[in-house]
Amino acid sequence: MNNPIHHRGRSVSQREKIKNLCYPCHPCLNPHSSFNFQFSIINYQLSIIHYPLSIINYPLSIINLIPAQ
């Protein structure tokens, strides 16, 4: 499988850095296996669901810190 980053002439360490940064968000960059690829897609979809929930949850947790009267 061709890695487009590799063909831009970046060093391996830079490639690893980019891969490590982007891998959770972009499973297409370097799937090691079809299982890992499918799992990371599921993980990606879950994180899309989780992000708005955490925005909703954040103010609730602040409200929760206020001691009950």
Our Rg estimate from Cα atoms comes to 19 Å
The dominant shape is elongated
Query: Percent of residues in beta strands?
Result: under 5%
Helix content: 55-70%
User: Mean of residue pLDDT?
Assistant: 67
What structural class results from the helix and strand content? Answer: mainly alpha
User: Counting H and I runs of at least 4 residues, what is the number of helices?
Assistant: 2
Could you give the order of the helices and strands? Answer: HH
Separation of termini? 62 Å
Summed up, the domain count is: 1
Poorly predicted runs are none
Largest sheet: none
Total number of beta strands: 0
Describe this structure in words.
This protein has one domain. The longest helix is centred in the last third of the chain and has 32 residues, at 34-65. With 69 residues, the chain is an all-alpha fold. The chain contains two helices and no strands. The chain is elongated. It has helices at residues 12-22, 34-65.
Descriptors for this entry?
mainly alpha, 69 residues, 62% helix, elongated, 0% strand
Brief account:
The chain is built from 2 helices and no strands. The protein is mainly α and about 70 residues long.
